Amino acid sequence: MSSQTPADSTNSIENYEKLIRERDELNVRGRQETQLKVVSDVQLRLDRSLQTVRQSLDCRKCHGLLFQPYGLVCEHSVCARCLVELKEESNPPRCPKCYTEILLPPIFSPHLHAMAVSYAAYKGDPIPPPVEFIWPEPKPELIEKGIKRYADEKR
Ligand SMILES: [Zn+2]
Ligand SMILES: [Zn+2]
Prior knowledge:
This is RING-type domain-containing protein. The N and C termini lie far apart (94 Å). The mean pLDDT is 85. This protein has a domain at 69-154. It is 58% helix and 5% strand. It contains four helices and three strands. The longest helix has 51 residues, at 6-56. A three-stranded antiparallel sheet has the order 2-1-3. By secondary structure, the chain is mainly alpha-helical. It binds zinc ion (2 copies). One zinc ion is lined by residues 59, 61-62, 64, 78-79, 81-82.
């Protein structure tokens, strides 16, 4: 057993201080890693909820963002651009998703439109100009038929 020389004790103080510094650095790094992990977890949750939002803003025909969306009698929604196409494709027009005949006039959904605009703004995507179109006044008997069928389906 050799006794400690002054050089040894200097060394051990230096070692101690070095270890303290290393520990502090590790602590800082650990905190940074924890913060990064928290940030990436939050980002992941944000991405997932954005995905959900995006899915609910999906036009059933073109799968673009639901700008100027119209709710159909079957409760699916299409953008105005697609509604114009549906009107030209068949008479009566049909829902592109479930092929229900659109016998009742589609209803504009301002909430979905506002969400689509916010989503596009968040993504930095352009917002298309409004589409002008006229949905023909449905014949009264078509409205009757539509309401009856809608009521039957809801039962
Ligand atoms: Zn569309
Ligand atoms: Zn539908």
